[in-house]
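Kindly go through one protein, given below as sequence and tokens. The question is how this chain folds according to its tokens.

***
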Amino acid sequence: MLNAVNAMAQTITQERFITDMVERHQFDKSYLEYLFNHAKVRKSIIKAMTPHPTGKAKPWYQYRRIFIQDQRISDGVAFWHNHASILKRAEATYGVPPQIIIAIIGVETLYGQNQGNFRVIDALVTLSFHSSRRADFFREELEHYLLLTREEGFDPLQLQGSYAGAMGIGQFMPSSFRSYAVDFDGDGRRDIWNNYADAIGSVANYFHRFGWQSGQPIVKATQINPTALDTLLGLAFEPKYTLTQLQQFGLKYHGDELANTSGLFIDLETEQGPAYWLGFQNYYVITRYNHSKNYAMAVYQLAQEIAHQYAQENSLLESN
């Protein structure tokens, strides 16, 4: 009986969603019913979205090993060579350096090789109506998905993505696609699945729109006064404190940035113990892509390794 009640509640919620889409966005009701009838609820998606029983994220040193690998670095260098002109134009247009764009794509999809094998509509319907975790968020994304497929002329039953509904080479959620995806090659379509120009331009535009500061630092190692750790950990995780304030709170940083430069405190767990960093506006922008300090640091360090190897290869080519 309980399962029947839950199924009825889900059906009503889904029906209300359809009614709302008809009233607010003038969708055809029978068309939406057809789409929902052909969407499949995937238990594997619910399982993938279920938090780890301990509720703890991997420590930084374990997380780092996943992404900072020789193969991922060399593949990133090859990606740079293959798309050098597009990356150069993206930097000129949006101010975001190639290595950062490449690292995002490398972390998200292995440079487009692993974009996800779930239908986006299956993922979003499953998470909107058959899972209690962030269901409101996924219903909003489902709304954006239906709107973008109508706007772009895509078949909603065909597009593939991750188990969370993220799409394409750069893994944009539907709302991000509508707000930040760009037609970077001017062919009249925003294709982030197959068109690397559009994918690169879209990632760069995303960073630009969230306030990337061209030529400015991202993150730097620092030390702290041992008695200040609790105070620093209690600060908001956003660059709302000046260097002067952070130093007053106990940060031992002596860089050459201006005293009124904004920053945030970062603590990471290494195999040797805790390590501390000063993050700047650009580090915070990376966290707008994924709200994780480990993710942002992985992107930064992968970008650094790719840039270093790319420069070495270019230097060897020029000397021969």
In short: The longest strand covers residues 262-270. The two ends are 76 Å apart (CA to CA). Residues 68 and 301 are 7 Å apart (CA to CA). The beta strands are 118-119, 160-161, 219-224, 241-242, 251-252, 262-270, 273-279.
